[in-house]
Write a structure and sequence with these properties.
Elements lengths: L3 E2 L13 E2 L1 H14 L15 H4 L6 H19 L3 E11 L2 E10 L4 E10 L5
Helix pairs in contact: 1-3
């Protein structure tokens, strides 16, 4: 996979685009997928989980299960060629959403664990 542009786009100290290694590329792609709301990208209207909007009304097991399901479907559809999703756990604590993802990078067979967190949004 090699190196790719850093997301969100940044310039480095010398004014050149900042890049990241392959391990960070997958993490950044997962983060984009998790927190992009479907319909937000003009040319890719189905891209995104929008999980931060699923749990605005409170944390309960049903909402967490729904978020986990949406994440599984979207990772399989949009990043399935890059990663094999092994486990997903969604929790909300003190108005913060925590998403723990265990996955295997298909190209290297490397197993990785990532935690993403975001403040919960209020009703739209």
């Amino acid at each position: 996979m090699g190196r790719s542009l850093y997301f969100p786009f940044h310039l480095g100290d010398l004014g050149t685009p900042r890049t990241v290694g392959s391990a960070q590329v997958v993490r950044q792609q997962l983060e984009q997928l998790l927190f992009t709301v479907p319909g937000e990208r003009y040319n890719r209207p189905r891209f995104g989980c929008g999980v931060q909007r699923l749990v605005f009304s409170g944390a309960n097991p049903e909402t967490a299960a729904a978020a986990e399901y949406v994440i599984r479907l979207n990772v399989q559809e949009h990043l399935g060629e890059l990663v094999q999703l092994d486990a997903v756990k969604v929790t909300a604590e003190d108005a913060t959403l925590f998403i723990d993802i265990l996955y295997t990078v298909r190209a290297t067979r490397e197993e990785r664990a990532e935690t993403f967190r975001r403040p919960l949004e209020g009703p739209p």
